[in-house]
Design goal:
Elements lengths: L9 E2 L2 H25 L10 H12 L14 E7 L3 E7 L3 H9 L2 E7 L6 E6 L1 H18 L7 E7 H7 L1 E7 L2 E4 L3 E2 L4
Parallel strand pairs: 2-4
Antiparallel strand pairs: 1-9, 3-6, 4-5, 5-7, 7-8
Helix pairs in contact: 1-2, 3-4
């Protein structure tokens, strides 16, 4: 039980998160869909990473991390299409610090379909990602030995998230399908 801070139970706020989702993610994307389609655009990327960070903050009762590093005070938030990979980016001048920050927090993965009507929110404890981060460190260091390299990108797979994570919330066909108000930590 190395995560969830020092508490025994993680308290969630699924109804509040769902209300945010309905108003600012689902309804907004549905309004955009017709216009996007008319002009030949897909919905991919029409919901910003900031929207997912706010959604996670509401669900977890956390706040933005104003000090930099992780997205929230206690979590890094990633989003991707269901079945896709969750990308991590490390920039040249703060990459090592960012990787250290990522190792210090738990990670929230939001998987969704292209219409934003299917949403899965997964928590992967930092200890489950440690081997991945340990593998990335020497690769990150080597990447920046070349002067023209500005970014280092790596991904965590959806299958890893599903096998190592805890499902916190599931929205199916735009409706709240699984929404516990608390989760006990994994052993």
């Amino acid at each position: 039980m190395d995560f969830f801070f020092a508490s025994d139970v993680l308290n969630l706020h699924p109804q509040n998160a769902y209300q945010f989702y309905r108003a600012f993610i689902l309804q907004s994307s549905q309004k955009k869909a017709k216009i996007y389609k008319t002009y030949g655009f897909t919905m991919q990327g029409s919901v910003s990473s900031k929207d997912w960070e706010v959604f996670a903050a509401i669900l977890l009762n956390d706040r933005a991390n104003s000090m930099g590093g992780a997205d929230l005070m206690h979590y890094e938030v990633k989003s991707a299409v269901i079945g896709g990979n969750f990308e991590y980016q490390y920039h040249r001048h703060q990459g090592l610090t960012k990787l250290a920050n990522d190792q210090a927090v738990d990670h929230i993965f939001v998987a969704r379909n292209e219409a934003y009507t299917q949403i899965e929110v997964w928590l992967v404890p930092r200890v489950k990602l440690q081997t991945t981060f340990d593998r990335w460190l020497p690769e990150l260091q080597k990447n920046y030995q070349t002067a023209d390299r500005q970014r280092f990108r790596r991904s965590v797979t959806y299958s890893f998230v599903k096998t190592q994570g805890i499902l916190l919330l599931n929205i199916t066909a735009g409706k709240l399908a699984y929404a516990p108000t608390s989760i006990a930590p994994m052993d």
